[in-house]
Each structure stands twice: as structure tokens, then as C-alpha cells.
Amino acid sequence: MEQPSPTPLLDLVDSPDDLKKIPREQLPALCAELRKVILDTVSVTGGHLGSGMGVVELTVALHYLFDFARDRLVWDVGHQCYPHKLLTGRKARFHTLRQKGGLSGFTSRWESPYDAYLMGHAGTAASAALGIAMGDRMRGEQRHAVAVVGDAAMGCGVAFEAMNHAGSLDEDRLLVVLNDNRWSIAKTVGALSRHLNKLRSGAFYNRAKEAMHHLIQSIPLVGKDLDQKLGDAVETVKHMVVPGHIFEELGFRYFGPVDGHDVKGLLEALDSTKKLDGVVLLHVLTEKGKGVPGSEDRYDRAHAARPQAKKKPEKVPVEPAVLQPAVPLSRPGRSWTEWFGEGMLHLAERDPRVVAITAAMPDGTGLMEFRDRFPERFVDAGIAEQHAVALASGMATAGMRPFCAIYSTFLQRGYDQVFQEIVLQKVPVVFALDRGGLVGEDGMTHNGLYDLAFLRCLPGVVLMAPKDGPELHEMMAFALSLDGPSAIRYPRGNAPNHGELLGWHGRRQPLEPGRMEILREGQDGAVLAYGDMVQVALEAAALLDKRGVHVEVVNARFCKPLDGRGILALCDRHDRVVTLEDHARIGGFGSAVLECLSAHGPVRAHVQVMGVPDELIEHMSRPQTLDYCGLTAEHVVERFLAERQAPLCR
Q1: Are the C-beta atoms of residues 335 and 379 closer than 8 Å to each other?
Q2: Order of strands, edge to edge, in the sheet holding 558-560?
């Protein structure tokens, strides 16, 4: 006997038009089915679990009332879009989430007409939606622009800039949904606010209020003054009982808070606000991770889930003697993030000036234990990288030694502050750039491929990248000793430990400013590797040894200051040199090497840069991205073997 489907309602929905055919009283059951599919799928694929689980009812209500094939819906960050994807024709491919060739973990305008943007950073949805609303007005279009913004993202400076601008515009139609998943608000507002919301959002009240204003103003001599005084009194009382007056002052019409898990209440609130012109803010209370077992007791509200471990299929080599790795590329061990967190504890224990700053990523940057052990020296600036960088400058000016732990891709958001508040002031701030390089499943919005390019052009900044965990600790201690700014980049994933590097037996050379480290010798060429690519270079050298090709492997350590003498000497003793980095080829470490050579005249070697190509890299696993970009040991081997027939190009 055929088993009944566990998701009978969702089975009927292949588009928002299908959703609108479901009776309203059955929508809570549909929401339960959506949560089941998300939980079951993300438990396998990995992804941002808590955020999507928290907006299921909101997503259903939005698509039930709006037509986002024409109207525009902008999700801030975009990682809460999983229920949105399920309702907009991507249900059959949902199991491919964050996999190569599959669905993105964020909204993507190339994936669906229902996605207005590829949105992976927080705080910009209100600006984007406002731009859509203004463009519609200029073109004579009549449609709705809706931005869903989280309460944390609302703290971004750019979000308030957008709100400030939108509030000054009367003719543009914009709805900002404040997705507030902070539990404390639900307990402080209560029934009175909901009652006031019904009065203020109802069409009758708004028409009656306008009619009353006209009536009072028509009274001879005193009408305008009386209307102003009565209006001020009403506003004063309202601000005493309604929590949204700050948004009212910015020019928004505020409604809420509304229970974000009550579909009926959401439909009523959205239906009322939908009829209003101008800029409106609807305050919705949700629970991050709703429906995730045990999430009610967790600090992070089940923000993300790791994929289930998969048994890797055996790789069939094309040329066993060349392409078969000498050792597996991935090994169990501690992540780079964990090494950084441990290093911060050691430094803080020895130096009371050490302070840790993060921009809403204490767990992702490995600072949770630091936060617990040194709470007075830990600062979470929220999703406000600009503020975090400027704050670090102020602390350094006051004599502290801040380590600003920010993902490489997110430091781009605070770039002006890096220059104005850090570089120009020459203050000793250390940037710990986690996820430097290809990140894998989070895709192009999170790849940290440009930090070297945008930092090494700034005067006075020291740039480093370690080959393993112990060297990361050395570089952190070295950065602490500097009197100016520095940055240390390291990738996502596990770090090789002392002595684990293939072909290297613990001959650790002391860290010296701007000096590279020779790890193994060879007479048939050299690989000059930066950061985690040292491991790949050593694996390639071991494979080449089996083919009778012996290459020198050098750990660059520094991108700035560059070891000019060491590079010139390397390129004078070899015919072939390859630079290897997990960064964009344009403007990265290899570019710095070529600039050095061009400034010092001709050398013996032909030099080629191996890095990430000049394109936007889609989401797939990190090993897959490295393979796609030609940054594996096998690719290095092929490069050197091919050069026996054709010389390298500088």
C-alpha cells in the first residue's frame, strides 16, 4: 500500500499562484510542512538553518498577498530565503542547495525571476528596495517594493541611511518588514500595542484622521494652531506607548509588533499596510530556529547546520604515476578559526592590552571562549564592519592592541575606515581575515578573494599568511609587536599542524619581517606559495619527485613587505618559478612578485602566477572550487610537466 505523502499541501505548490489557491485555514499546516522539508534537507546539505525556519509564516503570508513575479521582494542577507525558494518553483531542486550546479544558499537573480538580487551581505536590502521604488515612480510603474530586514541588520549604518532617505520621500511606495527575532521585545509590548496597531493601520482610521485634520483646520482664525497642538498631544501620547516612534521620526509609518508565527495575523497586517502609500515599516516578531529541536535553549538559535559527512567516491586517476595524490588532501584536525581563537587566549593572558573585536561573528571567528574568559576585553560591534574598524582605531589610539576578526569578504564593507581611521592614523590594529580565499558552498558573495589587492596598495600595512596553525600563532605574536596596522589571512577549513606538511620535517625557520622560508630544495624549478597553498605546493613537489622532477618549495609568509632579495635570488637560480595563492590572480601575491621583478630588471626565470581566475566563482565545495580554479597539487604537477615542452610565460 502506497504511503501517504508527508507534505500533501506543499506537493500542490509549484509557484506562488498555487499557494494562493490553498484556503487560509490550511496555511499553518503548510508552514509545518515547509519546516519539515527545510530541516530534513539542510541537515544533509548544510546551510543557514535557523534564519529560514524563523520566517516560514512571514514568507507564506508575503507570497499569499503579493505578486512577486511583478512586485519586488528583497531579502536582507538572503540566507533566510529557503522557504521562499520552496514556494517559487525550486522545490524539486531544493536538495541541491549549496552544491556545485545546484541552488545557491542565498537569493540569486540568475536563479529565479522571484529573486531581485544576489544578496549575501547584511544591511543593504532597504537601500536596494528604495531604489526599486524610486525607479518605478520615475518610470510610471505601479508595483510594491518590499524589503525584509533582520533586527541585527537594521543596526547597519547603511540601513539607517536608507531609512533616513526613504522617510523624506512621500511619493514612493516602500514596505520594510522588520524581522525581529529578539525574544525580549515580545514580552515588553503586549496587547495594548496590538490594539493601537489595529486602529492606526485600518483604512477607516487613516481616512477619518485626515478628515478630522481638514475639519479642525477649517475653523476660522484658530484652526491651524489648534490642529498643530492637538497633533502634538496625540504624538506625545503615542510615543509613550508605541515602541516604533523612532521609525516614525525617520518618516516611516510604523505598525506592530505582529506575531510572526501567526499566519492569520500576518495576513491581516500585510493586507492593511499593502493598501497604504508612502514608506511603511511593519514590525514582525519571529523566533530564529523555530521548529529546530533544542533551538530554544541555544545561544545561536541554530543559525547554521553542517552537512552530513559523505563517503567520498574513490578517484580514478588518468595518469596514476602523476595524478594520484601521495596523501589525502584533507585530514582531520583543528580549523584555522580554532587556531586563531586559541592564539587570542594565549596573547590575552600575557598582554592586558589585547582586545578582540568582531562584527556579529563571535562564533564564526573563534572568539566564543575569549568572550567568556575576557568579557571586558571583547567587543561585538554587530553587523557594522565600518563601526568595528573605526572602533578598533579608537582603542588603539587609547593604548590598547585590538585584533579585529572579520571575514575577508566583510572587511570590504569597512574599507574606507581601514584607510581613514587605521592607515592614515598609523595605529597598531591587527586584522584577522578569516575565510581568506575560496569558501565553497557559500559561493561568490562570501569568497574572500580580494583582500590582498585592496590592502597591499595602502601604505604601511603588513600583510601575512601562515602555512600552518603554529605559524599562525607566530604571526599573531609578531603582529602584536608592530607599531602600525597589519593583516593575517587564513582560509576556511582545517589547518595542517607542525610536522604534518608533506615533505617538510619540522625545520621551522624563525619568523623575520618580510622574509620568506625555504622548505625544500630542488634544481628543476620552484613553487613560491602563499599561506595555505604551501601544503598544495609540497604535495605537488612529492608527486613531481616520482617523475624525476625536483622543485624547490618556498613559503612566502609575507605579501607586504615582500622579500625582494629572496625573490630575485630564487628567480636567478631557476628557469621556472610558479607563484601559488588562494586569491584573485589580479592584484594578489603573484602580481606583487611580478611588480618586484619588473622594478629590478631581468632575471633568469620565467614566472607564472597561479591563482583564482578573473571570474565570479559559483558555489560548490571548497575542494571543487580549488579544482575548478586549477589550484590543486595535480594542477601544479601538470604545469611543470607541460613546461618541458613549452616555457612558462611571465
Answers
A1: no
A2: 378-380, 354-358, 401-407, 430-434, 486-489, 462-464, 558-560
Angle between helical axes of 533-545 and 633-642 (0-180°, round to 10): 50
C-beta of residue 562 within 8 angstroms of C-beta of residue 596: yes
Strand partners, 578: 527, 608
Within 10 A of 146 (CB to CB), how many other CB atoms are there?
A: 27
Cα–Cα distance measured from residue 35 to residue 625, given in angstroms and rounded to the nearest whole number? 30
Number of residues in the chain: 650
Identity at 645, one-letter amino acid code = Q
Write the single-letter amino acid at 109. Answer: R
Give the cell for residue 16: 506562488
Under 8 Å CB-to-CB from 108, ≥6 apart: which residues? 115, 118
CA 500, 505, 510, 511 torsion-angle sign = negative
> 335 is written with which cell numbers?
580549523
Which pLDDT belongs to residue 447?
A: 92
| Residues linked to residue 258 through DSSP beta bridges, in sequence order | 284
Round to whole Å and give the CA distance between 175 and 233: 27
**Segment 26-56, tens digit of pLDDT:** 999 999 999 999 999 888 888 787 888 999 9
Question: Residue 194's pLDDT is what?
Answer: 45
Q: What is the pTM of this model?
A: 0.70
Q: Please, which residues bridge with residue 65 across strands?
A: none
CA–CA separation, 16 and 67 (whole Å): 8
| Closest C-alpha to 405, from 367, 370, 376 | 367
Which secondary-structure segment (H or E) carries 148? strand 145-150
**Cα 455 to Cα 62: distance, rounded to the nearest angstrom:** 42
Q: Which of 65, 105, 68, 117 is nearest to 88 (CA)?
A: 68
557 grid coordinates: 609568509
Exposed/middle/buried for residue 636 (C-beta within 10 Å: 0-12, 13-18, 19+): buried
State the Cα–Cα distance between residues 512 and 475, nearest whole angstrom.
Answer: 10
Average pLDDT value for residue range 311-329: 34
First to last CA, the chain: 69
User: Cell triple for residue 67?
Assistant: 505578486
CB distance 139 to 128 below 8 Å: no
Residues assigned a catalytic role: 288, 385, 413
168: helix, strand or coil:
coil
- Per DSSP, the three-state class of 388 is helix
Q: Name the strand (E) or helix (H) holding 438.
A: none
Give yes or no for a contact between 146 and 279, defined as CB atoms under 8 angstroms apart.
no
> Partners of 149 in the beta sheet?
178
